[in-house]
């Protein structure tokens, strides 16, 4: 699956595997597979990326290309047949440590803690946010490439009627689990201009951490504004304003996180996200269209490759290749995950 994704991305770019001299590859849950993958496809004398899939991997590879460490960098990931124990949550949500094994602090519980505090702190109700996952899931229902294709439509009432998982999160507030792969290719703009596919230019990016996950309490005080510094750095590098972004392929692992990004990135103040992300504003023709492929809630969440899928979808939007969920005239896109973001453009 990883190999298929890699070959697909290279074919779109008009390149072949022998053209690649930089690799950041995850096979299954093995994030250290790059060297073996590169060896197996016949590469010699290559650069290896160490960052996790998605935003971080793209930023790292872009720096490597800019520094001349490699000319063509491949970021690829694929997962299948990993989530087999359906009596438990997905394996990537329950690392083996005392907090998980003894107290059950799996992903949904951990991410619910700051969300619950946020609702309390600002007087926000789940009813104020339920249209967000409904909209995202409806994008997936319309997208033939999404796991949830054809499953819908969803309403805010459907979200609120789904079973409780970890308060305030109900089942349809949470990402799905699936199998799949994704890949992107980076090279210099000079080379990209000579390739058959429309090049997408990176404008800027930023990364930010808050501390070790699963072993420390993810309080709202610590996590609520994670991304503010990263966003400031990204927009400063890009030389654009926040309102210049046309489409937002944000990491929708849980409903509140979508709101949190816009607050942390400076689109509104703390507690004001629900008023910003109205049903009208997050439509495809609205001011802040989000997760247009159906996101993690409806398109796919495989364990790792969904991180890169956010970048893939942003590229599709900027190339005008998003099909049924295309944002008309999209020129600037934001892709992210909770610890970083990228800004890119088709211009």
Gap between N and C termini: 32 Å
Contiguous helical run count: 15
CATH architecture of the largest domain: 3-Layer(aba) Sandwich
How many beta strands in the DSSP annotation?
10
Plain-language structure description:
By secondary structure, this protein is an alpha/beta fold. The chain folds into two domains: 2-82 and 180-198, no CATH class; 107-174 and 202-345, Peroxisomal Thiolase, Chain A, domain 1. Helices cover 36% and strands 15% of the residues. The chain contains 15 helices and ten strands. The protein has helices at 2-13, 34-40, 55-67, 98-101, 107-122, 126-129, 131-142, 156-161, 189-192, 220-223, 228-238, 255-264, 273-276, 295-298, 305-319, and strands at 22-27, 47-48, 72-79, 164-166, 169-170, 180-187, 201-207, 247-249, 332-337, 340-345. The strands form three sheets. Strands 2-1-3-6 form a four-stranded mixed β-sheet, with helices on both faces. Strand 4 (164-166) and strand 5 form a beta hairpin.
Key features?
347 residues; alpha/beta; 2 domains; four-stranded mixed β-sheet; 10 strands; 15% strand
Give the topology, please.
Elements: H1 2-13, E1 22-27, H2 34-40, E2 47-48, H3 55-67, E3 72-79, H4 98-101, H5 107-122, H6 126-129, H7 131-142, H8 156-161, E4 164-166, E5 169-170, E6 180-187, H9 189-192, E7 201-207, H10 220-223, H11 228-238, E8 247-249, H12 255-264, H13 273-276, H14 295-298, H15 305-319, E9 332-337, E10 340-345
Parallel strand pairs: 1-2, 1-3, 8-9
Antiparallel strand pairs: 3-6, 4-5, 7-10, 9-10
Quick overview of this protein structure:
By secondary structure, the protein is of the alpha/beta class. 36% of the residues lie in helices and 15% in strands.
């Amino acid at each position: 699956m990883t190999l298929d994704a890699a070959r697909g991305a290279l074919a779109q770019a008009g390149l072949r595997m022998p053209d690649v001299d930089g690799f950041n590859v995850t096979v299954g849950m093995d994030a250290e597979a790059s060297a073996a993958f590169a060896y197996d496809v016949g590469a010699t004398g290559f650069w290896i990326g160490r960052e996790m899939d998605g935003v971080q991997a793209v930023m790292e590879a872009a720096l490597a290309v800019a520094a001349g460490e490699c000319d063509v960098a491949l970021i690829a990931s694929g997962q299948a047949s990993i989530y087999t124990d359906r009596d438990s949550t997905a394996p990537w949500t329950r690392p083996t440590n005392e907090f998980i094994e003894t107290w059950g602090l799996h992903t949904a519980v951990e991410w619910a803690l700051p969300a619950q505090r946020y609702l309390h702190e600002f007087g926000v109700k789940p009813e104020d946010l339920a249209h967000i996952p409904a909209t995202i899931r409806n994008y997936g229902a319309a997208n033939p490439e999404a796991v949830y294709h054809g499953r819908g439509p969803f309403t805010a009432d459907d979200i609120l009627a789904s079973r409780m998982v970890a308060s305030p999160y109900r089942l349809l507030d949470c990402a799905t689990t699936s199998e799949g792969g994704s890949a992107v290719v980076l090279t210099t703009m000079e080379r990209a201009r000579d390739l058959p596919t429309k090049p997408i230019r990176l404008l800027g990016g930023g990364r930010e951490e808050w501390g070790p996950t699963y072993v420390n309490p993810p309080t709202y005080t610590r996590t609520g504004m994670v991304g503010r510094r990263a966003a400031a750095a990204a927009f400063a590098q890009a030389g654009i304003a926040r309102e210049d972004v046309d489409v937002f392929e944000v990491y929708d692992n849980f409903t509140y996180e979508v709101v949190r990004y816009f607050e942390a990135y400076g689109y509104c103040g703390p507690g004001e996200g629900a008023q910003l992300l109205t049903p009208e504003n997050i439509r495809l023709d609205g001011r802040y269209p989000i997760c247009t492929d159906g996101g993690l809630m409806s398109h796919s969440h495989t364990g790792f490759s969904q991180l890169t899928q956010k970048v893939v979808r942003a590229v599709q939007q900027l190339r005008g290749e998003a099909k049924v969920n295309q944002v008309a005239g999209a020129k600037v896109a934001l892709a992210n995950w909770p610890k970083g973001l990228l800004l890119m453009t088709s211009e």
